[in-house]
Amino acid sequence: MKDKQKSGEILIEVKNLCKAYGNHKVLENVNTVIRKGEVISIIGPSGCGKSTFLRSINRLEKPEKGQIIYNGMDVLDKNTDINKIRQKIGMVFQQFNLFPHMTVKKNIMIAPVKLNGVDKEKAEKDAADLLERVGLSDKADAYPENLSGGQKQRIAIARTMAMHPEIILFDEPTSALDPEMVVEVLEIMKELAATGMTMLVVTHEMGFAKEVSDRVMFFDEMNIKEEGTPDEVFGNPKSQRLKEFLSKVR
After folding, report:
1. Which neighbouring-strand residues pair with 73?
2. Which end of the chain has fewer beta carbons closer than 10 Å to its terminal beta carbon, N or C?
3. Which pTM value belongs to this model?
4. 21: Cβ contacts below 8 Å, ≥ 6 apart
5. Which tens digit of pLDDT belongs to each residue from 87-98?
6. What DSSP state is assigned to residue 222?
């Protein structure tokens, strides 16, 4: 558990969130709050709604019911400018989603220049600073095809950070990586958490969840079945279902 100050101020409030694909319910009446500076790990079996919940927060999925209130705005309201919201709710995917025809540096620069109107010279300097931060200064002029999976994911994190988001959503960021590359990505995420960045992380990396999280959510059967500090969730699980899950992943 890290030692950092959190404001306690609510950044996102989720109310009665419901999502289905046809007759198949994925989320049912999910309620929670996310506070500024919190790092929350979301764990649970495959197919329990973890990624759908995460993707609903910036409306990559469209829930049928409920509200997601971010800075006083309902993300799910059709009148909300979702592109503006997504500039402040960053996302890191499993599969990196880098532009293959652009250099690493240009991948990081494009969104600040195109969406935020940042001057190219400043965007280039910021990209250089971010590349140094993720330990890849020597890859500025490389193309994604010449990078390892771990390097691509570190670039994807740098690209998200370039937009100066208020919160970053991580959707199983290490699941597509070879085991030796997982560590380098988790180290960057740990450093980011230590700076006070609000982070919501769907993960199978229980060590990361224990060490870095302020709160852990256990998803199962379309909802948050249990949540608490890492000590509470991992050290003293209340439900038999969580005990069974942890016995399988340890």
Report:
1. 70
2. C
3. 0.92
4. none
5. 999 999 988 889
6. T
